[in-house]
Every structure is written in structure tokens, then in C-alpha cells.
Input
Amino acid sequence: MSSPIKISPSILSADFSKLGEEILSLEKAGADYIHIDVMDGHFVPNITIGPEVIKRLRPLTKKIFDVHLMISNVDNFIKDFANAGSDIITFHPEATDDIKKTIKKIKDNGKKVGISLKPNSSIDLIQDYYNEIDLILIMSVEPGFGGQKFMPEVLDKLRKIKKIINEKKLNIDIEIDGGINFNNSKQVKEAGANILVSGSTIFKENGGNLKKNIGLLRSN
Output
């Protein structure tokens, strides 16, 4: 059974000088989730925002905060991000010494669990955890910066993961992030993704018409 397509705009492409307004605009435009990229300058070569910013944004909307932690020693920060108002906390298997323990920590804080795979990360990294997670985030660019070009070679990984989920009859969302636009949105949906993260396309195409761009990504 295919899940309805959800759009999770990445605020990495928003105007950070008016982030609150941008989130309200995304809500009005029909976004399903708000995708928040957290980078530490260590796990990835860029620095973005921390729990304090998420905490300030949280009262503005009831939309699901889809928080992607691209940080090392991820266990040290889960509680902070949970308390700040994250709904889904996604981490990279390479950022922890004990994947099972990290999953448990996120669940103990009452949040949904996502695991993210970089373009070169093997799906074997998550083979023991399908029964314990809610979401798999496939990166279709190298994590660290917005505006990169989509890597079509990840489509094969997407199809394999979708097949495994179907065979196991599990209810796991498959999210894709990186260079998602009107040209490749159909491809990624056909390959198995049901949550599309997009930044540049949503904020910049069609004169920044958020509603139109979200609608096109959903229906294309």
C-alpha cells in the first residue's frame, strides 16, 4: 500500500532573518512537515541551528518538526532537541557508537525515530533496526549544504529499501532529501519515497510561490 505523499520543506533555504514568518508561510502554503537540518561543523562541514532556535519556533505552528541531526556524539544532544519540540529525530548511524542505544534514547524521549543514509552509506547499516524505526531518510546529495544537484544513483537504494519494507510489511516512511525538484520528484516517488524534502525548489521556483511549488512537488 502506498502512503500519501508528504512535503517537508527544508528551512535551510529560508530567510533566516525572518524564520518565524517563513514557517507560518509554509504552513499556509500546505506543507505537511517542517524539515530542520542541524549541522555541527564536525560531522558535516557546515553549521546551522541548535535546540534554542527550534524551541523559539515551536509555539508558532503545530506542524510536525522533522529534525535531521547531522552531528557527532548524537546521544549527547537528543534530550535537548526532544525538549525543544522536535517530533521526529533522525540521526546517522555513523554518528553513534551504538545505534540501538540511540534509537532507545529517542524513543525514551517520546519522539519518532529516523535513520539517515548518506549517498555512500550501505543499507546494511540499518538491516537490524527496521522493526524499531519510523522513518528512513535517504540523502540524495552529500549532507552539509543546500542547493546541491540530485544524485540519481541513490534511486537504486531507495527501491531496495522500499522492497524490504514491503516484504516485512512494516509501516516505515521513506524520506528523500537533496536536490529534489520538479524534474525528479516523480522518479523518487516511483522508487518508493513518500516524504519529499525540498529547499531551493520550494523557496525559489515560480517567484517563491510556496503554495504552487509544494503542490507541484506533491502532484508531479
Notes: The helical segments are 19-28, 51-57, 78-84, 99-108, 155-168, 185-191, 200-204, 210-219. The chain has a mean pLDDT of 96.
